[in-house]
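Dear U.,

For the methods section draft, I wanted the exact inputs and outputs in one place so we can describe them consistently. I've listed the two proteins in the order they'll appear in the manuscript figures. Please don't edit the token lines directly; just add comments below if something needs changing.

First protein:
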Amino acid sequence: MKAEHKSFYNDVLKELETGSLAIFAGAGLSVGAGHVNWKQLLKEITEDLGLDYNSETDLIAIAQYNTNKIGNRSVINRKIIDEFNKDIEETENHKILARLPIYSYWTTNYDNLIERSLEKAFRVPDVKHSIKQLPYPKPKRDAVVYKMHGDATMPQEAVITKDDYERYATDKAPFLTTLNSELISKLFVFIGFSFTDPNLDYVLSRVRIHLREAQRHHWHFVRKVSKDDYEADKMAQFEYDQKKQMLFVEDLKRFGLQPVFVETHQEITDILKEIEEAFKRKTVFISGSAEDYTHWNSLDGQGFIHQLSAKLVEKGMKIVNGFGWGVGSAVINGALSKIYEHPNKYSKDQLIIKPFPQFPTGEKTLQVLWEEYRQDMIGYAGIFLVIFGNKKDPNEPAKLVDANGVYREFEIAKSKGLLVIPIGSTGWVAEKIHSELKAQNFGLEKGSKLIPLFEELGF
């Protein structure tokens, strides 16, 4: 992490913890996936009007001129349908933003990349592209996607012409009211946005005037004007554009918009990955099952799990558990004891329990369902903590064997890059994993101060 990004990094992590982070996605986010930007969308229309495509910058006016010329917006509607209903793969930025616990996504884009990314992350998006949809929440939603300029499936309602913008404050006032409220109550990160949209300018201005010095700040990604983008004989233009960019960025601070400068678009992805990794490191997946508690009796073994779970909650960690046999109930009791002891300090959100299905669903076998559950549960976490790991032999119930499911969870955690902490002293699969990782310095850098501590967790 660059020192200049530290404030942004800490801000975002804090708001993720409280559920108060919002995203505003502009055309740049979708262009990265392969969709056209506004200028490209209107290229043929601009040329049909007899205008120079490279010279025109007032795209709202271009859309209006076309509508005036033919008497309706059928050509524009056709363009929106053709360009934004394509089956295009989401970018890594879309995927990361969908996996993070963000509940408000705002966009002026017409495509469906945000909502598709949320669905692929096993989330339920509530898409709002019409004011008629705003009053009615979708059941079981865990994210709202506000498409304030419309959706490609209903191009006739898309905001694109001068007429649309001039009527927006009247026709779609509830979107402005909602956005105004969220800009006050949440921290926004603007990504892929140029800040040339009249609607957003109107809302930001109104918030600034109403709140004055009390308005909260937000962040926006800015790719620095790069000398590499200019030919040797265009250095004067480079210096001019660089100066103009800095003046523009300084002006946006009037609205509380702080810049996150990047050298390349890939750097945005790297920053988002770093934030996701740091956020996940606050969540521990506890893996284990126990018919036998090694050198403890049942009461002491479960007491250890209880104390372990309570201590993790006390340290501000979230716990994910699949309710493993002989382990799950103690994890729940330990976490809840701490949560209910100090309800104003700790939250029930710190405990995520996802019991395994016990019956096949549709055409999926239990083995397939369990694999999907493991992939999903472990995907929530950044730390994998494994204890015990034994079960009755299915063929000889009186005999105990290693729990292969626990080892499979270790394999998944390792493949996902989680920090693996095996408490080898609990025996069985945990001991096996501890021995295996000890030979590899537990995946830590040689000389790490954590290595001796990890070694102490063995017998």
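Second protein (the one for the lower panel):
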Amino acid sequence: MDRLSSLLSQFGVRANLFYNGKLCGLSTYDGAGGQGFIHLLQAGSVTLVGADHKRSLLIQPTLIFMPRPTRHQLFAGEPEGAQLLCASMEFQGGVDNPLSASLPDCLVLALDELPMLADTLKWMFGEAAGAHCGRDAALERLFELLVILLFRHLLDHHQLRTGVMAGLADPRLSRSLVQIQTAPHRAWSVAELASESNMSRAAYAVHFRAVVGQTPADYLLSWRISLAQKRLREGRSITLIAAEVGYESPSALARAFRRKTGYSPRDWVKDLAGGDDGAMA
């Protein structure tokens, strides 16, 4: 059972390298395009200013991970500056898919606390310093690998307290969550999910809500609708989507979709085309 791949197979991440060099002065990032950010501080020091205007001085190699659009600034004094690798990133399925929604707004982790990422970071910094053909494309793929390894680190070290990632880190809940994620078309009952976790129905329901932040039924609904939204973005028809995500008819999916989002699938797609995805997802 691969608890992480079942999630990433539906809501993977794409990275786009936009900075490789020495930062001197102030840079502002607002995520206006709906993207998140990854900054790698390789050398020097930088001050991170968050959306709440809180300042954090970072003086050692550090990973700054913002999975959703978050306004922030980085400031490096002159002339010493700071050596940075920066990429924007987008999750398949939009910024509010179950994976990104389970992550904090900002993670700041010293690189020496991430031994699982050490080889990849060494490879990245080597690529960044060289002038080989395909360097930027290689760095973008390495950023994507870095995110996967970061998720693995968060799961293995139980560093998230709520949401689906916290559930996947919980040995009693992970199997049932993977079952939901790999077979959303099944008419799962709480009793069946509890059996997957070797727990009583009542204990499972209480523990699931405490860790994931939703009831099992609400999470199943959220997962199905998130998958439907992803398929709609891809241009799939609601008729094909309905059976895939566990509804006996397009009208049944449409009712569940409206209950969850406040929109019919047709209206949601229209607003998505108009650029209002962030308001609805």
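Candidate sentences for the figure legend, describing the second protein: The domain at 5-156 is CATH 2.60.120 (Jelly Rolls). The first strand starts at residue 13 and ends at 23.

Thanks,
Y.
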